[in-house]
Amino acid sequence: MTSKKIGDVLLDVKNISLRFGGVQALTDISFDVREHEIRAIIGPNGAGKSSMLNCINGVYTPREGTITFCGKTFSHMNPRQVAEMGVARTFQNLALFKGMSVIDNIMTGRNLKIKSNLLLQALRWGPAGREEIAHRAAVERIIDFLEIQAYRKIPVGQLPYGLQKRVDLGRALAMGPRMLLLDEPMAGMNVEEKQDMCRFILDVNDEFGTTIVLIEHDMGVVMDISDRVVVLDYGKKIGDGAPDEVQHSEEVIRAYLGTAA
Ligand SMILES: Nc1ncnc2c1ncn2[C@@H]1O[C@H](COP(=O)(O)OP(=O)(O)OP(=O)(O)O)[C@@H](O)[C@H]1O
């Protein structure tokens, strides 16, 4: 789609299988994500998309298979370790503190980067004070980038849903990720909010060089912004390729696109 430079493989998912009791959520899934790519994961409800994302960011431990990120292979990893390796994530059902302001919510994304101890932070003394100033500046840059300056001090719970999703993106960006996992970033949005979110995703990818893996149900969005698409159905991979290829695959049309609303 664009002339941007796609790099080497950043994430390599190999032969991942995952079960929940009697439910086979994922069966032998393999795909890769290249540096600077926007990679979509699509499929009908219950296809295994969120489970796949949860395997990548260490929330679920797959029964079989490996995940290699930045050349490091793991089969067991907790979410904190994954975050420390540079993977951030947004959630389908927002993971924000509704009573806290926009700025403080985004600041929580900096937690992993804060080095000074709690007492020094509380006193805002010496290095802790300087560190806090640097983190606040980073948060302000994200607020400007996402064009939410007017809402900085407002409790997130008072904002419309589309803006809350933008704050959730800001929280993830505050982690300074190399790869961003977005779980249905446009869900529940109106057309205008979707257009805004698309623009921000493309800008994050372009300006920060962040690699993006997203789950999305809106086919128009997926086809517009993705470089490559993985298609899951009943936990199996049934398609993988450029949006055009995937769109014209008979198996994909039968399983998903043909039945899309
Ligand atoms: N924590 C869990 N415990 C038991 N079963 C689960 C759990 N999470 C997911 N499943 C099951 O695994 C399968 C895949 O679910 P998953 O949520 O990954 O699909 P999805 O493609 O993300 O669906 P949706 O588009 O509806 O969000 C489904 O059959 C689901 O019921």
From TrEMBL:
Nucleotidyltransferase keyword on record: no
UniProt cross-references to Gene3D superfamilies, sorted A to Z: P-loop containing nucleotide triphosphate hydrolases
Top-rank taxon: Bacteria
Signal peptide extent: none
Record Pfam families: ABC_tran (PF00005), BCA_ABC_TP_C (PF12399)
A GO MF label: ATP binding
ABC transporter domain: residues covered: 11-259
Keywords: ATP-binding, Cell membrane, Membrane, Nucleotide-binding, Transport
InterPro entries per UniProt: AAA+_ATPase, ABC_AA/LPS_Transport, ABC_transporter-like_ATP-bd, BCA_ABC_TP_C, P-loop_NTPase
Record-given protein name: ABC transporter ATP-binding protein
Organism: Castellaniella hirudinis
Source taxonomy: Bacteria, Pseudomonadati, Pseudomonadota, Betaproteobacteria, Burkholderiales
